[in-house]
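Model it.
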Amino acid sequence: MDAYHALAASYDRLTNDVDYGATVDFYFGIINREGLIPKTAVDLACGTGSVTEILAAMGIDVVGVDLSEEMLTVAQQKSAWLDNPPLFVCQDLTKLRLPRGVDMAVCALDSLNYITDPEACRQVLDRVYRVLNPGGIFIFDVNTPEKLRAMDGQVFLDEDDDVYCVWRGEFDGQTNICSYGMDLFQRQGNVWVRSFEEHREYAYSQSQLTAWLKEAGFTRIEVYGDRRMEAPREGEQRIYIKARKGRIK
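Modeled.
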C-alpha cells in the first residue's frame, strides 16, 4: 500500500508529540533575520496540514500541496474553521505549479527525503524556485544520512487507544535509501483492522542539497542545526536549510 494511505486517519494521533508551533517559530526566526514579511506561502508535502493551518491562522494566504488525497482530506477538515482557509492541491512536487507566485515556501518533517530519486529532487528544487516571487524564501528540513543509517535494524512503536503502529528500519548502503515497513492496526468499532505501508527515505547530504539549490538559482543559502540558529553539529540528526530567490537588495 502507498505511504500515508491508511495512515492518514491516524497520523495526527501518532505524531501528537511533534511541536509544529516550534517549527513555525523557527521559520520566522529565520524570516525576521532576513527582513521579510511574507503575505503568501506554499506548504510543500503538507500532509494533514498542521503547518499550513498555523500559517493561515497568522493571516498568510497559504496553498498546501501534497500527493496524498487522504492526507489532504484531513487537512481540509482541520482548517475549515479559519476565516481564510488554505487552498489544498493534490500534486506531485516534481510537477509543482501554482496559480500565482508566493513569498515563502516551506517543507517540513523530512518530506524531501521521501523523494528517493536524486534527479527528481533536483527537479523539485528547481520547481520551488520557479513558484517563488523575486526575493522569496525557501526553508526546509531533512533527515541526515547519519540518522537514516542509524535507523537500520531499529524497531519503533507508536500507539494510543485506537491505533497501534510498529515499524522496523532497514538502510541499504548501495541505494542510499532507508526503508521501513509499517504494520498499522486501527480500531473500527469493535474490531481492529490491519494494514501495511512501506515508507522510503533517501539520505541526501548537505553538500548535495546546497549544490542543487545553487544550480536552481538560489542565493543566500544557509544550513542550520535542528531548530537552532547555528551550524549543524557533528552527527546532527536533522538539518534545516534556507535559501533565497534571486539577487537581494
